[in-house]
Amino acid sequence: MSKDGLNLAKWAIDKALKCGANQAAVAISNQRDIEVDFRDRKMEKLQESTQNSLALRIFVDKKYSRHSTCDMRKESLEKFIQDAVAMTRYLTPDEYRSLPDPKYYPQKTNIDLDINDKKYSAIETEDRVKIAAAIEQAALAQSDKIITASAGYSDTHYQVFRMHSNGFAGQTEGTAFSSYAQVTVNDPNGGRPSDWEGGDTRYYNELPPVEEIGKNAVQRALSRIGQKKIASGLYTMIVDNRVAARLLSMLTSAITGQALQQKSTYLDGMLNKPIAADKLTVIEDPFIKRGASSRIYDGEGLAARKRTIIEKGVLKEYLIDDYYGKKMGIAPNSGSLSNVVFEYGAESQTSMIKSVKKGIIVNSFIGGNSNTTTGDFSFGIIGQLVENGEIIMPVNEMNISGNGKEFWQKLTVMGNDPYPYSSVKIPTLLFEDVQFSGI
Questions:
Q1: Of the candidates 187, 183, 185, 182, which has an alpha carbon nearest to the alpha carbon of residue 228?
Q2: Cα dihedral angle (142, 145, 150, 151), rounded to 10 degrees?
Q3: C-alpha torsion angle, residues 353, 358, 364, 367 (rounded to 10)
């Protein structure tokens, strides 16, 4: 695709400029997806799809619009581009709409981040089917309490070529693999508790073992049998590393350029001030080899860089995209995150549990919301009650609530177990005196 993508992107930009655009940006992508699903010992899905697309951003006299098409024939694209420019002329001007200053583009775009499994083409359909079937079989062999089990495998290969009319050009090629099990079991007391296990990787041979996926999904589901509400109150809270990223989003959504410019964040004016306990250090590292979100540049073409977002509880950077950076007169640093890592502690989840006199392990978040303007939040949870270092019983239909200003000061332990199958490598977290609402 490299040569063809380059030629087509250049042609599309030239066409847009000839039609009257002041600036233009093109993203051409080609993606192949294959998915296999098994349920109740039958193959439920075997699907392959390939999609080519062209996304176009047009800037005409401070007016801006976005367009996309899957019709890649030049005769169709010519009219598509002409219409896109013509429609943009009818929009309201916005003085801040333009491509980024080229000084913010990366100097090199050909750095190898090892995100493309070159053995992808050697994977056969038979291999994919065997993985999904084996995961389901491993799950079903675990217990006679299983009501239903599903398992799946999917993989993706993609190429994306980006070009801007003011000098940026870059190409990304990558692969992604995923496998999972979802299990529902019978609870004699009523209910159908369920849970899952799985993994997402860049390389085929780094997927978790199929037996591990099936076994863990069943064990997690069985551990929920007998779950019920317990009394409301303040509890120590241990948050499992599989779901802890849900809490981090409370912070990241409140430090965007949009939230700052629109005065809709409780963290406005908090740069270089403490917003969490000193246990929390959050680092973005876009250059991790085989990282789930590794990149040389973001969706606007802004150069990626390793940066510390929160250092020992102190907010060090906001997430500023190009548009809101222009509005606020601030240099952009990317309004999105790639790979996120932390300063980890020394304790395992097991040792945390043993240290808790009365607490709740949160294994899942269900619904809820957080308000970036006020910092207030409320989330439904499913988990397990801990007393004197022992897991006593499963709990559900409970909520945690509070305000981010106080909540993140209650973080007392960062675990040593970052979750490996995500771009957010967050460990188990322990908070003291969290408000739970139940009975």
A1: 187
A2: -10
A3: -160
State the CB neighbour count (10 A cutoff) for residue 49.
10
The CA-atom distances, in angstroms, between 345 and each of 350, 412, 421 are 13, 10, 19
pLDDT tens-digit readout, 60-92: 999 999 999 999 999 999 999 999 999 999 999
Q: Do 141 and 339 meet the contact criterion of CB atoms below 8 Å apart?
A: no
Q: Is the pLDDT of residue 5 over 90?
A: no
Helices (H), 19-165: 74-88, 125-140
For the domain 2-222, what is the CATH superfamily, name and number?
Answer: PmbA/TldD superfamily (3.30.2290.10)
Rg of the chain, C-alpha, whole Å: 24
The model's confidence at residue 1, banded by pLDDT at 50, 70 and 90, is very low
Question: CA distances (Å), 125 to each of 27, 155, 230, in order?
Answer: 30, 11, 48
Per-domain residue ranges of the chain: 2-222, 233-245+345-437
User: What mean pLDDT is predicted for residues 99-123?
Assistant: 96
Number of Cβ within 10 Å of residue 97's Cβ equals: 21
At residue 321's C-alpha, the angle toward residues 317 and 322, to 5°, is 125
For position 439, what pLDDT does the model report?
76
DSSP symbol at 351 = H
Per-residue pLDDT tens digits for 127-180:
999 999 999 999 999 999 999 999 999 999 999 999 999 999 999 999 999 999
